[in-house]
Structure formats: structure tokens, C-alpha cells
Amino acid sequence: MANFFINRPVFAIVLSIIITIILGGIAAVNLPIAQYPQVSPPRVRVSTNYQGANAEIVDQAVAQIIEEQVNGVDGMALMSSTSSDAGSYSLSIQFETGKDADIASVQTQNRLSEANRSLPSSVQTSGITVRKASEETVMVFNLYSETDMYNVNFLSNYGKLYLLDDMKRVKGVGDVSQFGSDYGIRIWLQPEKMAQLAISPSDVTAAIEKQNQQAPAGSIGKAPAGDMQEFQYTARVKGRLSDVEEFENIIILAKSDGSSVRLKDVARVELASKGYTYESTVNGHLSAGFGIQLTHDANALETIGDIKKLLDEAATDFPEGMQYKIVVDNTNFIRESMIEVAKTFGEALLLVVLVVYVFLQSARYTDTLAGDTGIADWHLWGLCCHGIHDQYPDSVCHGAGHRPGGRRCHCRC
Fold first, then answer.
1. Can you tell me the distance from the alpha carbon of 216 to that of 237, in angstroms, rounded to the nearest whole number?
2. Hey, which residues does 267 pair with through a beta bridge?
3. Is the CB of residue 409 less than 8 Å from the CB of residue 384?
4. pLDDT (tens digit, 9 = 90+) per residue, 217-260?
5. Domains along the chain?
6. Helix H segments across 71-178?
7. How would you classify residue 50: left for phi > 0, otherwise alpha for psi between -120 and 50, otherwise beta?
8. Which segment of 101-110, 224-233, 306-315 scores lowest on mean pLDDT?
9. Is the pLDDT of residue 331 over 60?
10. Fewest beta carbons within 10 Å, which of 67, 96, 400, 401?
11. For the CA atoms of 319, 322, 327, 329, what is the dihedral angle to 10 degrees?
């Protein structure tokens, strides 16, 4: 077979052109990222919030309990956690390469269910979030207004309502972080008035929790009822409070003479920011930031490209004066790295051509594309195997094309 191609150099060159430039080029562009070796270990991130606690209390009451249960989960390589004075807690768990991320997430969730009953009640109420996301933020964008007609709360709330849900559905997105705060009712207690009326902060908290809840009220005239009952009514009661005035009228203390002490008598209530942990600006204008984290097996270029398309489409419906700006985009580094790899391939090809020409002393026998034929062949067979798996999901792929060492790989269905 070797003599056949040696004696027919023109045929060998044409065949190399077909395999390398046409078929290999198409395969290299269209080969799914799932067919490449998995080099990034899967990560699972656990997060929760202990409202009002500092970092030391979060570490003692939340971190130690969760990490004691999660430690030793099947396939875990290492874990690291962060507790902040704002009451937030984040745990990143790295698993061994090759571990299925979905299985790792389920196993982590099972361990957390064992620790849940030992956590403070406020942590149980706020909930524990488990996501398959890396620690690195690939892209950060900000919403802002050049005329400062929108405050940070409005910008952050708009992004949460109209952008975050769509972004989390993009393939490859692990999580979307919000560097800002939503609207929240802030209650500023007045100690002097509370002392005069013998009211403690726990009394205020209990009254708010009791009167700010959604409760079923049942119905009137529901079967079985008497023959004289002609109508059935659904009872409706006031549910969760929604504005400042409703919170101000919460009854803290009811006296025997019929008088009462309301929240506005001992506190100042306002609609403000839920938290003040983050503050960001764009060219001097207040803004709300959002960070994109990917899953461990995501194609960063494809995923961030879809995010940018989504932002461009959403920008057409922004309120007047609102804009977005991408302030961090780490895919630029990836893109430049790919360009450098392409340059390296080109330089290697020139060196191969030069060496072959020097030894053969003939341009006729110098196959200018021999150096890249093996790489193109690997991509081509990888694409073929992917097509076989799409047609026959139960097939087992043992590789694609020729691997280093002369081993030939094949697909078996």
C-alpha cells in the first residue's frame, strides 16, 4: 500500500487535500465538545443565607454542620467554603474528573437533607441552594442609565425579573450571580419608644411573622350542607403584606381597653434596598451587576455567545434610558488562545514541509499536507462516531481515528 502512494504522489496529495482541508476542516468545526476528553473536574456549589449573622456565627451555626455532613461524599476531591459578615455562606465541592455532575449534585443534596434539621430555623426558611456551577465568573455585565433616572434597586429588580430566568435556561450556564439587591421593607426600631411600652425586638418579629403570611380561609356553604343552602362562597383573607402602609399597621400589642400599639408607633418603615453588600458603577453611573458561571462541561464560546444574543434581544425592550455594558469577558482570552494555536499549527506545517523537502530534494514528492492529515483524520472519525451515537444511543464508542502509539480506534454498536 505504501508503494502505491509513493509511486503516485499527485494522487496522495489530492487525497490529503480532501481529508485535511475539506472533510477534516468540517469535522473540526462541527465535532461536539462532548466528544473531547473531559479535563475539567465537576463542581457543585452550595449556598444559603443566615440573616443578621456575622461571619463567625455563620461558620459555627451553618458551615460546620453542613461540611460535617457533606465531607466524604462519593468521589469528592476537595471542598472550600466562604462565610461573610452579611450572613451569606457558600461551599464549593470539587469532584474527581470523570464523575457525573448530575449524580454528584444528587448525592450532595442527599447529604444536605441530613444536615437540614440541625440548622437554624431562619436558614431552613431561606433554603439551601445546590447548583452545578464553577467558581470562576466567565462574564460580568451591568445594567445602568447614563441619566441616572433609575436607582440600583430598580435596575437589579429588572434584571432579576426579565433577564435571569432566560439566562439560566441557556445551555452551559451553571448559575447567574446578582451583584446588587432587590427591593425590601426595612424596619428601623426606636429603642426609646419600645422601652416606654415594654416591647422587645422579639415581640416585633413575632408580630410580623404572624400577620405577614398567606393562609387558607376555606369556604362557606360547601357540601355537605343543608337543603336551604343555595350558594357556596370561597373565603378570602388578606395575605402577605405588600406596601409600607400595610406594614406600619401591623398590631404589635393589643391592650385590654381596646387600644393597640402598631408597628409605626415604635419603628420607622420604608421601602428600600434589601441589602447594601454590593455597590457598582459604570463610568460614574450607579449600576447593577450580574455574573455568569458555567457548568464544568460547557462550551464557553458557545454559551457566552448565546448570552450576548439574549442581551441584544432583551435590550430592544429595555425601559427608556436603560443600557447594558459587558465589563468582563474571559472568552476573549480563549479566543486569542485559539488563534495562537492556529498560528502554531501553521508554523509546524511549514517546518514539516521544509524538513520533507530538504530530505527528499524534490517538490513533487513533498506532501505539503501530510503533517496535519492525522489530526484531521481524528476529528473526522470523531464526528462519524458522534453520528453513530445519535442514530444508535446504545452504541459504545472506543475512540476515533488513530491515537498516539499506533492504536486504531473504532465504534462498535
1. 8
2. 189
3. no
4. 788 877 777 777 778 888 887 778 888 999 999 999 888 888 89
5. 2-37+335-412 (no CATH), 41-133 (3.30.70.1430), 137-182+274-324 (3.30.70.1320), 185-270 (3.30.2090.10)
6. 101-116, 121-126, 152-159, 165-168
7. beta
8. 224-233
9. yes
10. 96
11. 30
Q: Are 410 and 399 in contact (CB under 8 A)?
A: yes
C-alpha to C-alpha distance for 286 and 145, rounded to whole angstroms: 8
Give the residue with greater pLDDT, 388 vs 301. 301
Asked if pLDDT for residue 379 goes beyond 60, the answer is no
Query: Any idea what the Cα angle at residue 80 is, between residues 74 and 84, rounded to 5°?
Result: 135
C-alpha to C-alpha distance for 204 and 210, rounded to whole angstroms: 10
Tell me what the mean pLDDT of segment 387-396 comes to.
44
Q: What are phi and psi of 200, to 5 degrees?
A: -105, 160
CA distance 189 to 93: 40
Q: 28 falls in which pLDDT band (50, 70, 90)?
A: low
Strands 183-189 and 267-273: antiparallel
Query: Interhelix angle for 370-391 vs 331-360, to 10°?
Result: 130
Cβ(112)–Cβ(129) below 8 Å: no
Q: Which grid coordinates are listed for 342? A: 492556529
Half-sphere exposure of 343 (CA within 13 A, CB side): 6
What sign has the CA pseudo-torsion 254, 258, 264, 266? negative
Q: DSSP string of 375-406?
A: HHHHHHHHHHHHHHHHH-TT-EE---SB-TTS
Contacts of 77 (CB under 8 A, 6+ apart): 41, 94, 95, 96
Sorted by sequence, the CB contacts under 8 Å of residue 277 that are 6+ apart come out as: 84, 86, 88, 181
Backbone angles phi, psi at 220, to 5 degrees: -120, 135
Cα angle for residues 301, 302, 303 (degrees, 5° grid): 95
| Cα(12)–Cα(370) distance, integer angstroms | 9
Provide φ and ψ at 169, rounded to 5°. -85, -5
HSE at residue 187, side-chain half, CA atoms within 13 A, is: 21
Residues 6+ apart with CB under 8 A from 228: none
Residues 169-183: pLDDT tens digits?
999 898 898 887 788
Looking from the CA of 161 toward its CB, the CA atoms found within 13 Å total 9
DSSP-assigned letter for residue 41:
P
Question: Chain centroid to CA 237: how far?
Answer: 38
